[in-house]
Amino acid sequence: VWIGDAPKQSIAPWCQVTFNAWGIGRKGKDDGVLLFIFPEERWAHITVGYGLERKLSDQEATRIVVQVLGPPFRAGEKDKAVNDTVDAIMAEVSKEKE
């Protein structure tokens, strides 16, 4: 998700390849989450393992980037942006889903 002033070509496929190559999440469960932030490009992406998509959908991950990470990041509060984003991710994966 572009958090700057104009859209750029998505590098989400690269994020997915990197996520898989790094082996994020528990083996056999594929339940990892990886937050990518490219500050110079003003771009961020949350990659979610397939085993965790029931708790953190791509739509919810995008909402977190746009609504939680974006505003403080654009305001120059990068530490707050990252901390709030991690907190939002943790809150979502901790929720009991039906």
In short:
46% of the residues lie in helices and 12% in strands. It has helices spanning 12-22, 58-74, 78-94, and strands spanning 33-38, 43-48. The chain has a two-stranded antiparallel sheet.
Can you offer a commentary on this structure?
The chain has 98 residues and is of the alpha+beta class. The chain contains three helices and two strands. Strands 1-2 form a two-stranded antiparallel sheet. A hairpin with a 4-residue loop joins strand 1 (33-38) and strand 2 (43-48).
Order of helices and strands: HEEHH
Question: Number of DSSP strands?
Answer: 2
Helical region count?
3
- Determine Rg (CA atoms, Å): 13 Å
Share in helix: 40-55%
Spans of at least 5 consecutive residues with low confidence = none
Strand order of the largest sheet: 1-2
Mean pLDDT: 87
Please report which band the strand proportion falls in: under 5%, 5-15%, 15-25%, 25-35%, 35-45% or over 45%.
Answer: 5-15%
CA distance, first residue to last residue: 28 Å
- The global form is globular
Largest sheet: 2 strands, antiparallel
Strand pairing plus helix content: what structural class?
Answer: alpha+beta
Regarding quaternary structure, what we see is single chain
Topology overview:
Layout: H1 12-22, E1 33-38, E2 43-48, H2 58-74, H3 78-94
Antiparallel strand pairs: 1-2
What keyword list fits this structure?
98 residues, alpha+beta, two-stranded antiparallel ribbon, 3 helices, 46% helix, globular
